[in-house]
Design goal:
Helix content is 0%, strand content 49%. It is mainly β and 111 residues long. The strands form two sheets. Strands 2-10-9-4-5-6 form a six-stranded mixed β-sheet, with no helix packed on it. Strands 1-3-8-7 form a four-stranded antiparallel β-sheet, with no helix packed on it. The termini are far apart.
């Protein structure tokens, strides 16, 4: 099983980034998927989830209205579109299935 995140980097406050997670080794198209993040000194938290078909999503209050999770089952890829970024969104972002975690990608929001 592999979950490989990409798309992190440095963004200015108010800016946008799009994270991707390429999945392999399991039945991605039948799996609920999640994005989580861990900021320095804080516990890891789930920020978004999406069901297998993509027609049901949920978000943590901290990102609701700013982040959008989506998936392309034909490409075995999960996405997180992040807009109106804030310094407090700075964290390592992980994609996960019910059983597996990716290695994470760093997102830094700073002017």
């Amino acid at each position: 099983v592999q979950l490989v995140e990409s798309g992190g980097g440095l963004a200015q406050p108010g800016g946008s980034l799009r994270l991707s997670c390429a999945a392999s080794g399991f039945t991605f198209s039948r799996s609920t998927m999640y994005w989580a993040r861990q900021a320095p000194g804080k516990e890891r938290e789930i920020v978004a989830s999406i069901n297998w078909s993509g027609d049901s999503t949920s978000y943590a209050d901290a990102v609701k209205g700013r982040f959008t999770v989506s998936r392309d089952n034909a490409k075995n890829t999960l996405y997180l579109q992040m807009t109106s970024l804030r310094p407090e969104d700075t964290a390592v972002y992980y994609c996960k299935s019910n059983a597996y975690w990716g290695q994470g990608t760093q997102v830094t929001v700073s002017s």
